[in-house]
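Dear all,

This email documents one entry for the complex benchmark we are building for the journal club exercise. For each entry we list the sequence lines for every component of the assembly. Then comes the predicted three-dimensional structure of the complex as a token string, followed by one or two observations. Please use this as the template for your own entries, and keep the labels exactly as they appear.
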Amino acid sequence: MSDGAPVLTLEKVSKSFGAVQALRDVDFDVAPGEVVALVGDNGAGKSTLIKAIAGIHGIDSGRILFEGDPVRIASPTDAVGLGIATVYQDLALCDNLDVVGNLFLGQEERSGALATVTRQLDETSMERQAHELLDNLAVTITDVRAEVGTMSGGQRQQVAIARSLLGEPKVVLLDEPTAALGVRQTAQVLALVKRLREKGHGVVVISHNLANVFEVADRIVVLRLGRLVGVYDAAKTSHEEIVAAITGAGDPSTGELGPEVEQAMENARRDDAGQERS
Amino acid sequence: MTAGAASVEQPPAGDPGDGEEGGRDSLLRRLIQGDLGELRVIVVLAVIWAIFQFQEDRFLSATNLTNLLLQITAIGLVSVGVVMVLLLGEIDLSVGAVSGLCASVMAVLSVRHGWSPYLAIAGAIAVGAAIGTFQGSVFTQFGIPSFVVTLAGLLGWQGAQLEVLGTTGTINLTDPTITGLTSTFYDGPVGWAVAIAGFAVYAAVSLAGWRRKVAAGLRVQPLGALLARLVLAGAAIVAAVAVLNQDRGVPLAALILVGFVILFQFVTTKTSFGRHIFAVGGNSEAARRAGIGVKRIRIVVFAIASSMAAIGGIMAASRLLAVNQSSGSGDFLLLAIAGPVIAGTSLFGGRGSVWTALLGALVIGSISNGMDLLALESSVKFMVTGAVLLIAVIIDALARRRRQASGRV
């Protein structure tokens, strides 16, 4: 699915918080039109890696390349300026504003000759663009003037993702986009992730749900205790291999798995089954 | 690849009633639960007026309605600033004390120092803006709840007011410009001209906005509904001017109040600054992540609130023809906050409108005015106003719970 050079590359990135080494010499890249899933157990460093890319934490050592050029990402503004959009797990939407208000929050369009003085909003233009954006992504929200607070979790997640696309980012980071969603809503969000890939965005997804990961990801990057364990081609790997890599038990190449891996796989299967039932 | 979503059925957005009882809510229930916000207040106001008119037929006389307008001007202006703070999800307990202090500053500058009335008024408003900037800065820089910061302000500015007034304690206002703020009336053609011009602008802006949306192919309300709204608004304006002209004419004070309400209604609903106020009140973390300067918005809004308090204090002083040690104290603060809340501005932030400052002041002012006409004790007045406030906040809490319930879908 991915073709061409990576849009974002991390080389030997390390980050520690006091005595805790959260990331240790991690290499990572994502290409345009590619979905890379970032998986790992709690504390593996997934969130730290995402936050390093998003500019929330600076990195201690290593290099970040954007479109081949070394860049410094010291703040969220730097990341946004490069074309890196982030959708956080807690959605950061304003429930009391409508869809248009949320999509354009902080980057409202203004109208009128004295717009810089009066700061008058151009509601017509924003509403039309909101329709275009949502139609383009095949997001089915019938009323863009409805308050976001009245919407379902899946619709809210789609609004949050659509919002991140307004600045035409090259890389979109999604932190647990399907957490706490039902089956149908999860399907909607995963379909949206696939459309981001079709439109040529480089997409990085954090997820605990391996079924979802296998559905959308081209490559799967596994972190454990701050280290890169491996990068797997989603089409050629298996649940078992990924779980073994996440837990770090057994040797995936021989097919010999330790008891704790068997247990973890069993848990993962049960989670997936539970997800499908609910 | 997209088949997954295309086949999925989506519940229609923005239909909070869906799934609760499976049907449309009755108009009555929507009124009670606050969905129709301002219409509910107008109904309440109509009921209050009907009750008082039934008891005392001078209540709806032109003279009394003019008095009512003059009585609510000061508190309505203070409430405009309070609404802005409430939209942020904060509270300003200092507006009463600030109104008294700023009125005192104006009186001292005008009477003792002989400043021109315009400079004295500007000085008083500048003091208000400085106070609001200070309180907003303390609130944002140290992360102290606005409740506590402005509670300290309530005490401190009262002290400053006593200090400014000095030993005499009372300053009588004599300057005709200052006293004229609440004693100037435009009768006959001037009142009509202002009313017609105001309505023409409102109608033109409404229709132009409607046509622009149609041209852009967006969903709009039916033209009939828009015209009906314009006709209703026009009728209300005509009725108001006709009644006021039977007495002394359209009061300058009322024009000042309505002017500020329209100005801040525009600022809150039509500008990016206003949008950001709602965003901070709805979810300040989301606003921060969206790149909005949350601290700056908060400081500016507190400055606006204190400035409006100063303007309200000036109008109160003009009407009383004096400033004294009790200016801005007593129930002034509580009524200025109660008004917008009664009229539907949420105490929880992010919901409400500047119109509620005017409507709330009308409700509270009508209760007070009507009871005075009936020569009821102020004990009854306080208890009735308290009961109305309590009912209003219960409705607010119910509406909020309902929204949360429907938000989960």
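Observations: The longest helix of chain B spans residues 378-408. Residues 29 and 55 of chain B are 29 Å apart (CA to CA).
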